[in-house]
Amino acid sequence: MQRRMSLPGFRMRLTTCATVLAVALLAVAPGPAPAADSDQQALVEKAKATFETFLKAPEMGWFRDHLADSYGLVIFPLVLRAGFIFGLEGGSGVLVARKEIPGAWSDPAFYTMASGSFGLQIGAQGAEIILMVRSKRGVSSLLSSSLKLGADIDIALGPIGMGAKVKTASILAFARAKGIFGGVTVNGAVLSTRDKWNNAYYGRRVLPLDIIVLRSVSNKGAKGLVDAVTIATEQP
Fold first, then answer.
1. 67: pLDDT confidence band, cut at 50, 70 and 90?
2. What are 199-207's contacts with CB under 8 Å, separation 24+?
3. Predicted pLDDT of residue 187
4. pLDDT digit string (tens) for 97-113?
5. What are the phi and psi torsion angles at 166 (to 5°)?
6. Hey, which of 80, 81, 156, 171 would disulfide with 167, CB 3.0 to 4.6 Å?
7. Of 131, 129, 72, whose CA–CA distance to 106 is shortest?
8. Cα–Cα distance between 71 and 53 in angstroms, integer?
9. Within the chain, where are the H helices?
10. This prediction's pTM
């Protein structure tokens, strides 16, 4: 004769089954997304790829030869242009820097660049851009929340090709658009810190000063970029 389960016993068994099911689901449920899946980490990896592209280009001899005496690099993997001749444009990038030459490079701080006039070859709608910071003053200027190139700090086009001459400036701009290396006008562009991205990447509220100068935070996901820049800038 089959024995009927009492209501309290049924409830106890139901609770036990629910607990076992919950534990099983937690065991197979995905955890927090790794850093490699974040928008910030993706930008860091794209910045590394852009830097390595510039290193390999025959036209970028001056860029390669003077990396060792640069104080910082602001790398924008893609700056988009919205209009054909005029229009708003911009992109996101990272700043890595060092206090002294030679010296260890910092982890990246995140920035945006926006401008109302962006000179590109006809037909090009985007470009990879690297700003080479040539002075301590240039790095210090970048630590502010917003900076206008050409107004708050002097900037010039980086020399391209054999026998190219360079103008004296705190920042030199190098660019590649549609596979061609050449000058891109960024004079008047505004650089701004991406505070939310910096906070997300380092897990707490930080300023560029904390990342670039104090070096009070780090992210292991930045190692590839930092190593690539360090190797390229080592004194022979």
1. very high
2. 200/38, 200/40, 201/35, 201/38, 201/40, 201/41, 201/108, 201/110, 202/107, 207/143
3. 81
4. 998 888 899 999 999 99
5. -115, 140
6. 156
7. 72
8. 20
9. 7-28, 39-56, 61-65, 136-142, 195-202, 208, 223-233
10. 0.79
The model's confidence at residue 207, banded by pLDDT at 50, 70 and 90, is very high
Number of H helices, E strands in the chain: 7, 9
Take residue 226 and report the two structure tokens written for it. Answer: 């930092």
* 3-class secondary-structure state, position 94: strand
CA dist., res. 20 & res. 3, Å (int): 25
pLDDT tens, position by position, 117-163: 555 544 456 789 999 999 999 999 999 999 999 999 999 888 886 55
